[in-house]
């Protein structure tokens, strides 16, 4: 019985300790959630950078639909320092736990994304599933944009980049941990989506390009149409449209099934060829002439699609090859399939700039919609 | 003739052998000089007045065996037994076996105690019998025997409590019961040191080890159908005079999440209902603790929307999250306790007023966040999903442990709590049977066989 009494006494003491928690115990209402952050170069001083943080202000009434956010900027020599400096400008504890988007201003990304990227991966309370992106013209401008459809501060960018919301073939999806892996691995390079803004009218974001990085700096930014083809190569069952011309008429296909596989073939020592096999299934969505399609014409149309997609893909692959980057990871595949630790990397280095592509596309039009 | 007579005697001996250990069996010999008549019956199943007036009194009034013989056989419902099994069957149905010379008659004196039996109060079912045990041991025995007509159902009577001398009966199916469990139960009852025993839960408390437990290892039930089902599964039933509950043992964790509805409904629905109860268990145990952990330690686990919503609705709350949770949960416990104690007429009024004040006024005043109200309501409702009230009370207490852990260690504390609870449950034994052995009912039956 004595032990029980002791236990009860201990429990009483513990309960009393709850009341003296003091200010170390920080509840959710004493925290400020940073939902997005960005980094830009400063024009006249190459030693410092401008860091921008978007802070969500908690909703008072969820039904009002009113959103409040706060933009904090800090010019500093390092991000770690900037995060501390920004703390003295706010009344509550800053929490990076909900930071979903990291934007690299274009000029910063063309220099090197390494410093900021390293910090986000290394820091304890930032999540590895953040969505990184390149911001055009700069991160601060993009962070300041709040589209009319945004219901939670800073959520629009995260929704679009994560494809939880809109699912556009022009948006490439990547995570911070993946960027980190691509930077560290040999034979594969990171890529980032590019967030632009719509000039004039109501504030709006436009994410329709992809930036190819040479490990840490942007080498090239692909045009929207190239970005779509880029996605076709990297995403399985991409929901997109494809266009072709036949007998002077436009035809558009709604793709609901797609798959791209490739094989690296060494044709002769030092020379290689990459064989791409792309299978696409979909329904006809739009056609210029309103005549009925015959079965023969449909087969002809599929052929036309095969050729035009193959041409687009080959052009894009050559373009990417010429930038010297390797976002698909051809190199990694080559290392994996050519087992020679001493020479494989050098072999690939010599081979890649002159590599050729053979693209085989098979489009299967499953239906023509309501009318033939 | 002598061999014929011995045949009747043989039958009687066989009958008595079958009824060995059946404590409510009655055998009474009526004799006038050399002539003898023997009555065999189960006293819990027969009407004592009928037996006394029609069979015993008449015997002495007539004062002649032949006349008595004629008298007995003249009843329209009285039949002569064809064989032993019919004899035993009718005995268990509540008939009196009258042995006169070499004849054996079955005399109908069934006692039906319908009037005093009331509806089940704590273990309601939707479809199925609604009667529940009464405070009378004999009535309860009658209700069980009527549902379990087998000579294998043995009843052993005892008296416990130094002062109260409460009558109890230990019931079991001789073929299915685990003898080790039975032996242990008898030992524990023999060693019981209590002055007064007034309820089933007292026996539960005095016989179980360790004494300090959060979860019950014996089941209390007020339902005859559950009792009979458990008897057929090889469990032991202790029926206690003066209480409307019987003890079923051994009981494992899963038993407390079984309602009689599971047997009545179609199998998929039964499984669904059981799954709902386990989800309810997890919800009522963890929801308040998770609220503390999420708002104070790990808000990054929540979705952005919810995090901002909680932060917004907590903006006016002047104290930390755990105070808020404990305050609201205590208020809810007060309400639950009040509605149990209050007279039935004012009970609903009190809960409505309390609920209204706690629910609306506290949030309007900004003392409690909106999310908290939803949470408390969910916790209160899910707690009542657990069908056996003893278990539901244990869970009610256990959730405070989880809140404490969450307050000190956050999400890690909750994980710690879950692990230690599983370890604790696994360490418990109910009469030597592992407590956390899930879905063990069928296995138990097989072992019993």
Automatic annotation (TrEMBL), chain A:
This is Ger(X)C family spore germination protein. It comes from the Bacteria. It is found in: Membrane. It comes from Paenibacillus lemnae. It is a lipid-anchor. The keyword Membrane applies. One of its GO terms (biological process) is spore germination. Residues 26-196 form the Spore germination protein N-terminal domain. Transmembrane segments: none annotated. InterPro entries: GerAC_N (IPR057336), Spore_GerAC-like (IPR008844), Spore_GerAC-like_C (IPR046953), Spore_GerAC_C_sf (IPR038501). Belongs to the GerABKC lipoprotein family. Keywords: Germination, Lipoprotein, Membrane, Palmitate, Signal. GO terms for cellular component: membrane.
Automatic annotation (TrEMBL), chain B:
The chain crosses the membrane at residues 236-253, 275-294, 306-332, 367-388, 400-426. GO terms for biological process: spore germination. Residues 175-202 form a coiled coil. It comes from the Bacteria. GO terms for cellular component: membrane. The keyword Membrane applies. The keyword rRNA processing does not apply. Keywords: Coiled coil, Membrane, Transmembrane, Transmembrane helix. Belongs to the GerABKA family. This is Spore germination protein. The lineage of its organism: Bacteria, Bacillati, Bacillota, Bacilli, Bacillales.
